[in-house]
Design goal:
Layout: H1 17-30, H2 37-53, H3 58-70, H4 74-87, H5 92-104, H6 108-121, H7 126-138, H8 142-154
Length: about 160
């Protein structure tokens, strides 16, 4: 699945395009192509301090939520995405990443609802189409999945 900008990209093993994307994402987010749990712990600690200094910073909740999600701490991630959305209801990336977290928890209908909400705000979000396609696929609705995958591809996400 594709989360925008999720911190799920952990390894650069192999030679595929996905692996190259992971390496580039990790490099941009963390300054290294390889990321460990300790890096996520650092992100969580850093953004906890930001939140303590400014509890109205939606972006800080979002980034800390990404750290929690990448450590498979889904309930903590959801709490942070929910707070980011409470502070900024139009925060598309928080909707997409909350949807991704629901996908990870096999809560596909909740995930689809978040992707729908994200796409209502940004109909050009290829990652949301791709992720929603995966959710539809997991629910056994291949026709809707294929339509979303085609739209994601048209937007440059494969």
């Amino acid at each position: 699945m594709f989360a925008v900008p999720a911190l799920l990209l952990l390894t650069t093993a192999g030679c595929s395009e996905v692996d190259a994307d992971r390496a580039a994402y990790n490099e941009s987010m963390y300054g290294s192509a390889e990321v460990t749990d300790a890096d996520f712990d650092d992100v969580i600690a850093e953004f906890t301090a930001v939140i303590e200094a400014d509890p109205t910073d939606a972006e800080a909740y979002f980034v800390r939520g990404n750290g929690y999600e990448d450590k498979d701490l889904y309930e903590l991630a959801l709490a942070d995405y929910n707070e980011a959305l409470r502070l900024d209801p139009e925060f598309v990336d928080a909707l997409v990443n909350r949807g991704y977290t629901y996908d990870e928890m096999a809560e596909y209908r909740l995930a689809i609802a978040d992707y729908d909400a994200a796409l209502a705000r940004d109909p050009e979000d290829g990652g949301a189409y791709f992720n929603r396609g995966v959710s539809y696929q997991n629910l056994g609705n291949q026709a809707k999945a294929d339509a979303d995958f085609a739209r994601a591809k048209a937007l440059g996400v494969e």
